[in-house]
Design goal:
By secondary structure, the chain is an alpha/beta fold. It folds into two domains: 154 residues, Rossmann fold; 154 residues, 3-Layer(aba) Sandwich (Rossmann fold), CATH 3.40.50.2000. It contains 13 helices and twelve strands. α7 links the parallel β7 and β8. α7 crosses α11.
Length: 325
């Protein structure tokens, strides 16, 4: 099988028996990257003798091609939680997904939840949708070294959550209850986003902004719990990353999160401030802080494997190629 890939360094091509053809493009730029994808990549695929075109992030060339196309739809929040996006981007992504679904011979999604939602939106495409789950990178494992300096100086326990940047992550619901409780010697650490990194907590909340992978692994490993109050997730990879680092997870029931966290996670209704308040007070009053990796989290993360998922995807791709030839 020959694949034209934007990021060939991510392929273990020998193990997968795949010939990888590198392609250079700033595919995240708009509209330059979009024009390249629709007008240049089909030509590159044809000249390289590619057997399949895989659009790994919501889009494929919409014009007919001589080879089959698979598009990966990671979630459908542009339809179901559109208010969380700027209006122009929301309408653009809805247009992209509609056209890409119609132009693809197969549609990959990361969860059963996303499969069901996509089927409701595009019932005519139901028989072309297949599920292959994601998994945490092997990089994520219990490792305390690498904490950001601001986190090293924290006294007492701390919880970890995403940044406030993305309204869909719903972290403001957690922060509001946290600041109401104002626990002594506890800190809520927010990681990610574009905010400037703080050097000390403000009202019990420390915003770290963008962090490195090494820092993220240490944060997962050292937190008493990773809290993920997201309104909706097509999969919820941060849940598995935290679990792979031995961190207990407390999440919402948004989208695929129960499917990913299984029985190893605890679930809260983050729209119910009293329920969140009660859990937080129990957490901070505990006299037995976590000193070892959380066993159920490690077991749950280990049940997902990129090797297994890659083989599932390749099997689906090869079947599609065989049918088309």
């Amino acid at each position: 099988m020959t694949v034209a890939s934007l990021e060939p360094q991510r392929w273990h091509s020998k193990a997968a028996n795949v010939n990888v053809v590198p392609v250079s493009a700033d595919y995240q730029s708009h509209p330059k990257g979009d024009l390249y994808e629709h007008f240049q990549l089909p030509r590159v695929a044809a000249e390289s003798g590619s057997d399949l075109f895989w659009g790994c992030a919501f889009a494929v060339p919409w014009a007919p091609m001589k080879i089959p196309k698979i598009v990966t739809i990671h979630d459908v929040t542009m339809f179901t939680y559109g208010a969380c996006y700027p209006a122009g981007f929301r309408h653009y992504m809805r247009w992209v997904v509609r056209l890409s679904v119609n132009a693809s011979q197969a549609i990959h999604v990361p969860s059963e939840n996303t499969r069901c939602e996509l089927t409701r939106l595009f019932p005519h495409a139901a028989d072309r949708i297949f599920v292959v789950p994601e998994a945490a990178s092997s990089w994520f494992q219990p490792e305390a070294e690498g904490l950001p300096d601001a986190a090293k100086s924290l006294k007492g326990g701390w919880l970890l959550a995403p940044s406030l940047d993305d309204p869909r992550k719903n972290v403001s619901a957690l922060v509001n209850v946290w600041r109401k409780i104002a626990p002594q010697d506890w800190t809520l650490v927010l990681a990610g986003g574009r905010v400037k990194r703080e050097t000390s907590p403000n009202m019990g909340v420390l915003q770290l902004g963008r962090v490195t992978l090494r820092e993220m692994r240490a944060l997962y490993s050292g937190a008493e719990a990773f809290v993920f109050p997201s309104l909706h997730e097509g999969f919820g990879l941060p849940v598995l990353e935290a679990m792979a680092c031995g961190c207990p997870v407390v999440a919402s029931r948004g989208g695929a999160l129960p499917e990913v966290g299984g029985d190893a996670a605890r679930y809260l209704d983050f729209s119910n401030g009293d329920e969140v308040d009660e859990w937080l007070r129990k957490m901070i009053s505990s006299e037995t802080p976590r000193s070892q990796p959380h066993g159920p989290s490690l077991e749950r993360a280990a049940s997902f494997s990129w090797k297994k998922s890659a083989q599932m995807f390749l099997d689906a791709a090869r079947e599609l190629i065989t049918v088309k030839t």
